[in-house]
Design a protein that fits this description.
This protein is an alpha+beta fold. The chain contains 10 helices and 18 strands. Strand 16 and strand 17 (334-341) form a beta hairpin. It is elongated, with a radius of gyration of 22 Å.
């Protein structure tokens, strides 16, 4: 089994930007100092010749961490993300990597568990060593990928920025290797003139390739409502304020391009309206919608903590990193937040948020 890739600073920045919000779902980050391993903290990575996939389960790492903290007599970690699933797919060839090689007896597929918090820390330290930023709001000044998209690949020699050329002598190698007899995902940063030499190793647990079937995204029914939001109208600030008032938020969506966030209690009733959203539907669904007298509608009852946890990327990802995002609503089943990265052929990540059962008489529409 062998995996080795080369990355420019822009690729490291993109991977870090994607991992930061997902790692907040899983928790983890436990080190050898507490005698516990956090490798199985809810994140599994899939690698092949074409793609890199990340599958995470909200709260899985915190559950293990809480057990350890409880044994040590400490407090509990942050809650709220339990039940959320997140799935990301990034294009490997001419996408997240400048180049990569992968070999395995399982048709060149490698699957492993990893602590995403530790990987986030290693990526952040790598960016800092390159002179970039690795904090929660990092990436604001990161350059676009220069080998992503057909147009970019064809014209990269004409429009490569000066900042990219200034770092062209710096190379980041990501590979699987053994460190101290344990399998690790290693990040080795080096400079052609020898002024920089930084190494990080994140422990992993190698799995059988067929085990990936247990980490696939949830299968959901066709959404009742799908709405695309403008990037300059984020949901997170509103959800953050509503969460401080109520643990439950009702989301009313309509294929007329409207969405309402509401909370109702004995003390207060609040409604926030979004209009002029872009309805999205498959061709068959569009034909069905055209035959209906009224646009399709859907109401969901969601934990405010879960909804906020699935929107943290709106505060941590830089402008220009995300191309678009769509809210999908499946009645009494799921809310799905699908985020497409920029450029759009680089990849995406998707949150699957469980909802409470809601009877017809409790729906607003």
């Amino acid at each position: 089994m062998r995996f080795k890739s080369r990355m420019a600073a822009e690729h490291v920045q993109l991977l870090h930007n994607v991992i930061v919000p997902i790692s907040r779902l899983t928790g983890g980050g436990s080190g050898p100092e507490n005698g516990k391993s956090s490798i199985g903290s809810g994140t599994t990575i899939y690698l092949d010749l074409e793609v890199l996939r990340i599958s995470s389960r909200g709260g899985a790492g915190r559950a293990a961490e809480d057990r350890c903290v409880s044994q040590l007599g400490g407090g509990s970690s942050e809650q709220g993300a339990e039940g959320i699933a997140c799935f990301s797919e990034l294009i490997a060839a001419n996408g997240i990597f400048l180049e990569h090689k992968i070999e395995s007896i399982a048709d060149n597929v490698i699957v492993f568990d990893i602590d995403l918090v530790q990987l986030r820390t290693a990526l952040a330290a790598t960016l800092q060593s390159l002179g970039g930023s690795g904090g929660a709001g990092d990436g604001a000044n990161s350059a676009p990928l220069h080998n992503s998209g057909a147009d970019a690949r064809n014209s990269s020699s004409r429009r490569s920025s000066s900042s990219f050329h200034s770092r062209s002598s710096v190379l980041v190698v990501m590979k699987l290797a053994k460190r101290g007899g344990l399998p690790c995902l290693c990040l080795d940063t080096s400079c052609a003139n020898g002024t920089l030499d930084v190494h990080h190793a994140v422990p992993v647990k190698i799995l059988r390739a067929e085990e990936w079937q247990h980490h696939l995204p949830p299968v959901v029914n066709t959404p009742d409502v799908q709405l695309e939001f403008q990037l300059d109208r984020p949901l997170r600030p509103v959800i953050e304020r509503l969460k401080a008032i109520s643990p439950i938020i009702y989301v009313d969506g309509s294929m007329a391009g409207e969405l309402v966030l509401r909370i109702d209690s004995e003390a207060v009733s609040i409604r926030t309206f979004y209009d002029k959203l872009i309805p999205r539907a498959e061709e068959e669904e569009e034909q069905s919608q055209s035959r209906r007298a009224d646009p399709a509608r859907c109401t969901l009852k969601i934990d405010s903590k879960k909804l906020l946890a699935s929107l943290q990327w709106q505060s941590s990802m830089a402008r220009g990193t995300v191309g678009s995002y769509i809210i999908c609503m499946i009645e009494n089943e799921m809310m799905v937040v699908h985020v497409v990265l920029e450029p759009e052929d680089v990849g995406f990540f998707t949150y699957y948020i469980p909802v409470h059962f809601l009877s017809r008489d409790m729906m607003d529409f």
